[in-house]
Amino acid sequence: MVGASLASLAAAARAGDHRATATLLRIAEQGGAEADLLERELRHGAPPPAHRIGITGVPGAGKSTLVSQLVTAFRQRGARVAVVAVDPSSPFTGGALLGDRVRMQQHAEDPGVFIRSMATRGMLGGLAQASNAVADTLAALGYDPVIIETVGVGQDELDIVAAAHTTLVVLVPTLGDEVQALKAGLMEIGDAMVVNKSDLPSSAAFVRDLRATLALRRIGGREPPPVHATTATTGEGLDALSHWLFGRDGARAGWMPEREALRRRWALESEIVARIRSRVRARLAAEPELCCQVERGEVGTHEAAGRLMSPIEAD
Ligand SMILES: Nc1nc2c(ncn2[C@@H]2O[C@H](COP(=O)(O)OP(=O)(O)OP(=O)(O)O)[C@@H](O)[C@H]2O)c(=O)[nH]1
Ligand SMILES: [Mg+2]
Fold it and tell me: pLDDT-derived band of residue 17, with 50, 70 and 90 as boundaries?
């Protein structure tokens, strides 16, 4: 696609044309020369950095339901809102994403809301890099905030969280002990904790325990993150959570420059890692016999790696 049509697509997308936006996102996701052109095009007339809000937490915690409520709250303030729902677990656009669509249906007709679901399929450079390209594009098209939802269990998801300025960690009051352990990793990354499904009877005790745990784990003398109890299905507790989020949003002049610089630095690193990873995969695919020899134990990994890497290192 030539520069001129990219410019007209960008103009249409900025005016709220969802089809133009979808076309641009496809280009950004695919990477390569056309994505470079698009990035350059979008840098013209791009608004100041958008607030990227990451929503992560255990599967089924009610993240999408919560996101839908937050979209409504931001819309009431006149913001143009984008949602990137990332599902690292499913190789196909399966059940979870279908569920997202149902839960976010009420926003489908709203020209001020753009929702994009992504799954692992076809993401050669990795999901973190692809979701980052999508979020960058939506931000450049004037969506602010850009909300990124992901299931928080693995490295891919933690990388996705690194792409956010503000992270909400969503928990539910029914987690068993093994899930509590998993939660330890999640606790470090939350700017705020959300205990959703607080209509469940164990909620008050869970919130109390969580607050106590967070107070104990205080890092570097920093205030522990606030804990918000919500029932996303009814909207209970959403006002307090939105209020906290709007406060942070309004104070962006104070925290945005540093967080945004860190985020860009991270995005650069992640882009380079993605490119190297796809070259490594291409090398492995080009040497199936050597790979089989390693699998059978006939050649050591160290030696094989040296042979596979030499064309890459020669560049
Ligand atoms: N009781 C109760 N159910 C809720 C609440 N919030 C969401 N749910 C229900 O929990 C189920 C999962 O909700 P989702 O919003 O899809 O959860 P999710 O975290 O996005 O799920 P994944 O993306 O699949 O990990 C749905 O059936 C919701 O209706 C809540 O506050 N209370
Ligand atoms: Mg979801």
Answer: very high
Q: Which two tokens stand for residue 275?
A: 């490119």
Range of the domain at 293: 270-314
CA of 59, nearest ligand number: 1
Mutate to test the pocket of ligand 1, among 56, 58, 65 (most ligand atoms within 8 A of CB): 65
Residue 28 maps to a domain: yes
Question: Do 51 and 162 belong together in one domain?
Answer: yes
Residues 92 and 240 occupy one common structural domain: yes
Of ligand 1's atoms, which has the minimum distance to the CA of residue 100? Answer: 16
Give per-residue pLDDT as tens, 19-42.
999 999 999 988 889 999 999 999
- Once rounded to an integer, what is the mean pLDDT over residues 277-296? 93
Mutation test residue for ligand 1: of 233, 234, 236, 238, the one with most atoms within 8 Å of CB: 233
Q: Is the CB of 103 under 6 A from ligand 1?
A: yes
Q: Which residues of 205-229 are buried (b: 16+ CB within 10 A; e: fewer)?
A: ebbeebbebbeeeeeeeeebbebbb
- Ligand 2: distance of its center to the CA of 98 in Å? 9
* Residues 20 and 142 both lie in one domain: no
All residues at 6 or more sequence positions from 146 whose CB lies less than 8 Å from its CB, including other chains: 50, 51, 52, 53, 81, 82, 83, 84, 135, 138, 139
Regarding whether 29 and 54 lie in a shared domain, the answer is: no
What ligand is nearest to the CA atom of residue 65?
1
Residue ranges of E strands in 139-188 = 146-151, 166-171
pLDDT in tens, 59-90: 888 999 999 999 999 999 999 999 998 875 55
At 159, which CATH number? 3.40.50.300
Distance from the CA of 218 to the center of ligand 1, in angstroms?
A: 29
